[in-house]
Design brief:
It is built from two helices and four strands. It has one domain. Strand 3 and strand 4 form a beta hairpin. The mean pLDDT is 78.
Length: 84
C-alpha cells in the first residue's frame, strides 16, 4: 500500500469517527424549543440566553430579560414552566 493511499484511508477513517451530530447544534435546537414552550405558556422571556439540563426533560432556562424558568414535564405528562 503506497503512502498516499494509506494517508487517504486514515483521513477517511478519522472523518467517519469524528463526524457526528454537533453538540452545539443540539444546544441551538434546545434553546429554540424551550423558547417556544415558554412563549406558548405565556411567560415573558423574549430570547433564551442559556439552558442548563437538570435531568431528563428538566431544564433551567435563562432569558435575555433576566427571568429564569424551570421547564419540565410533570407527572401528568404536561410541560410546565415555573419562574425561579
Amino acid at each position: 500500500m503506497n503512502t498516499c493511499t494509506w494517508a487517504s484511508a486514515l483521513i477517511f477513517s478519522l472523518a467517519v469517527i469524528f463526524s457526528g451530530p454537533s453538540p452545539a447544534a443540539d444546544d441551538v435546537t434546545l434553546l429554540k424549543d424551550l423558547t417556544a414552550v415558554i412563549m406558548l405558556l405565556g411567560m415573558p422571556c423574549g430570547q433564551l440566553v442559556s439552558a442548563k439540563r437538570q435531568a431528563d426533560n428538566d431544564h433551567i432556562a435563562s432569558c435575555e430579560n433576566g427571568n429564569r424558568y424551570r421547564v419540565y414535564v410533570n407527572a401528568e405528562g404536561r410541560v410546565v414552566a415555573q419562574q425561579q
